[in-house]
Design goal:
Low-confidence stretches: 1-27
CATH architecture of the largest domain: 2-Layer Sandwich
Number of helices: 18
Number of domains: 4
Distance between the termini: 6 Å
Shape: elongated
CATH topology of the largest domain: Dna Ligase, domain 1
CATH class of the largest domain: Alpha Beta
Number of strands: 24
Structural class: alpha+beta
Helix content: 25-40%
CATH superfamily of the largest domain: ATP-grasp fold, A domain
Strand order of the largest sheet: 7-11-10-9-8-12-13
Strand content: 15-25%
Radius of gyration: 29 Å
């Protein structure tokens, strides 16, 4: 589900336009008898908004905003301040679910003298009091209120809607914008906060990375903590590796396309950036307790949870039937990458098969690496040759292994070491030796995991398994191949398979080989849809300088965020620079952006057909890419985005 967060644009038409709804009191109809705010039926509205829940009940969020285009898909409540009695202005909060135009509403409640506008909730932005969530107040574009008027109106609205205190800003439109420009000093000195359209991506203190609900114990993550699938973790920064958990909160802004967040999306667990989360009373008071945690496009919710609802939640999440990944052992030779294809995922793994498929997409020459693929047959024969399947069976029967996660992690680490030090059959050594000779003697070889349990439609498995670079000084390539084999049994991958009831022994490891890239200028991840801000017609990109990986960022990483237009050459919007202290420039130059745009279009179109998607189906591809030391674009991976 996409996060609903659309770019505000200044509306140059009359805010008071109506929907010409067929109802009594529409524009031109008779004025009804006056109804005081305290006497309103709820289907008309209220005179006071006492809490956030009531605001949500009164609000509208959707596309039906007539000419008020800038309000589309934002959560807003319209209001009217009746000035008939100059000594007692009265506030009407409209039930905006039912009434979205001011003039017909005024006739329904029998008022004429007024100030009217809308209160819009911006959940991602930081309020003046420093907490997540900002309410902005705007009026008709042709209005031109003085600073004194705006100050008075905001105070009046806050009196009748206390949750605005410390969380409200004036949003000038049209005539109000011109008046604001002439009175900036008064706003700066008068304590009235102002929100401008250019602020939409600035000062963000809440960002929903994955919209979902979860239950678990709220705990603060540190390097010593061993988390469980029933923990909701508060992380100062997002760690590079994390076994399955029930939810994530980070106090530092995340890299949206990191492996950890991709797994949160796949696992359907809530994940959000909440600035200074441990300083917020509603969160800090619940640390160490069992909670319900929900991430929505309009903010987060967190509360104490009951044991019964926790158990129901986890019972509903987990599959009930074991699953067996497709594993075809009929291919018995290492082959050049271009000789494999999309249907070969069951022989070589989806990562290798998808890269091979892209060789047929007519991308610019040099955009894809050349290399080789090792089939599952090698892994299976290696495991049987060393009795490692039987060794795992014995381990899995151990009661402590079944129930004690710490013991299980330690036992799996020992099992991985068994794999790394086991003997490779002579015939396999010969084929790996022949493969190694295909690369120049001084070339580092990248050995990449490629399984039948990742990069699948509906299951990304991002970050579950490990890849390694084999340097010429390390001797026989078998060393690094066995390291890749062993990564099938790391703790995070084992726990993920166990939760989804995926058969461990049916899971198989292939290996993708290509020259290692050194000294790259940038690396990035792109999705063929805007999966974070929800804009239409854009690719969403995260980019890091040099070798600071987007998929596994360091704690200090600040990735570039760019929206790259689907069709418009040189059409891009830099949302966030990778270095906020330097001028805002993209890490990709114009030629690289245009080349990436063309490649993303071809990749999306071709994979959409290969995965059998129909027009209108929710579908996107996620692509990992590099800019090499000589400035060339290289695409190294493609997987379906898990919605």
């Amino acid at each position: 589900m996409k996060a609903s967060f659309f770019i505000l644009v200044i509306c140059a038409v009359c805010f008071a336009s109506d929907f010409a709804q067929a109802q009594p009191g529409r524009r031109g109809g008779p004025v009804g008898p006056r109804i005081e705010p305290e006497n309103l039926d709820f289907d008309l509205g209220v005179g006071k908004i006492t809490d956030r829940e009531l605001f949500e009940k009164l609000s509208y969020q959707g596309p039906e905003v007539s000419r008020d285009a800038y309000l589309a898909n934002l959560e807003f409540v319209k209001f009217i301040i009746d000035k008939a009695d100059p000594n007692n202005h009265k506030v009407y909060f409209m039930n905006t679910q039912n009434h979205r135009a001011h003039p017909p509403y005024m006739r329904l409640v029998g008022i004429e003298s007024r100030e009217r506008g809308a209160i819009t909730y911006m959940p991602r932005l930081t309020s003046p009091d420093g907490t997540p969530g900002l309410y902005i107040i705007d009026f008709q574009p042709n209005d031109s209120y003085s600073f004194e008027d705006i100050d008075r109106i905001l105070k009046k609205l806050t009196d009748h809607m206390p949750l605005l205190k410390g969380k409200v800003a004036f949003h000038p439109l049209g005539g109000n914008m011109r008046r604001y420009e002439s009175e900036k000093d008064k706003y700066e000195n008068g304590g009235v906060s102002v929100y401008l359209d250019s602020d939409i991506y600035k000062n963000i203190s809440y960002l929903p990375l994955n919209i979902a609900k979860g239950f678990g114990k709220l705990r603060v993550y540190d390097n010593e903590l061993r988390s469980s699938p029933r923990d909701i973790l508060i992380c100062p920064t997002l760690p590079n590796e994390m076994p399955r958990v029930a939810g994530v909160i980070t106090e530092a802004r995340q890299t949206p396309l990191s492996h950890v967040n991709l797994r949160a999306i796949q696992d359907k667990v809530p994940n959000a950036f909440i600035k200074d989360a441990r300083q917020l009373e509603d969160i800090s008071s619940l640390i160490g307790k069992e909670v319900f945690y929900e991430v929505t496009s309009q903010g987060y919710r967190i509360r104490l949870a009951k044991p019964a609802e926790i158990e129901r939640h986890f019972a509903a999440m987990r599959p009930t039937v074991p699953r067996y990944p497709k594993r075809d052992l009929s291919s018995k030779k290492i082959i050049p990458l271009e000789k494999a294809d999309f249907p070969d995922a069951s022989r070589y793994g989806a990562k290798a098969a998808n890269l091979a498929a892209m060789k047929k997409f007519k991308l610019k020459k040099g955009t894809l690496p050349d290399g080789f693929v090792m089939p599952f047959y090698f892994y299976d024969e290696f495991m049987k040759h060393n009795g490692l399947y039987k060794a795992f069976d014995k381990l899995a029967e151990n009661e402590q292994f079944k129930t004690d996660s710490k013991f299980r992690a330690e036992a799996l680490a020992k099992f991985q070491n068994q794999i790394r030090t086991a003997e490779m059959p002579a015939w396999m050594m010969e084929q790996v030796s022949a493969l190694q000779k295909e690369f120049p003697a001084d070339t580092p070889i990248r050995c990449r995991s490629s399984t039948n349990n990742e990069d699948l439609d509906g299951f990304s498995g991002a970050g579950l398994y490990d890849s390694f670079t084999h340097n010429p000084s390390e001797g026989h390539l078998a060393k690094s191949v066995k390291q890749v084999f062993a990564s099938l049994w790391n703790f995070r991958a084992y726990e993920e398979r166990a939760f989804f009831l995926i058969d461990h022994k049916q899971t198989a490891m292939g290996v993708l080989f290509h020259p290692n890239f050194k000294g790259e200028l940038a690396n990035g991840v792109a999705v063929t849809s805007d999966v974070l801000y929800g804009t239409e017609g854009n690719y969403y990109l995260n980019i890091q300088p040099e070798e600071d990986l987007v998929t596994n960022p360091t704690a200090e990483s600040s990735p570039e965020e760019t929206l790259l237009a689907w069709w418009e050459r040189d059409g891009q919007q830099l949302i966030r620079s990778s270095n906020p202290d330097e001028p805002a420039n993209s890490l990709l130059d114009s030629d690289q952006q245009n080349l990436l745009r063309e490649a993303l279009g071809r990749i999306h179109f071709n994979f959409e057909k290969l995965y059998g998607k129909n027009e209108g189906d929710e579908f996107a591809m996620e692509i990992e890419f590099k800019i090499t030391s000589d400035g060339k674009l290289v695409i190294k991976q493609a997987r379906p985005w898990v919605f």
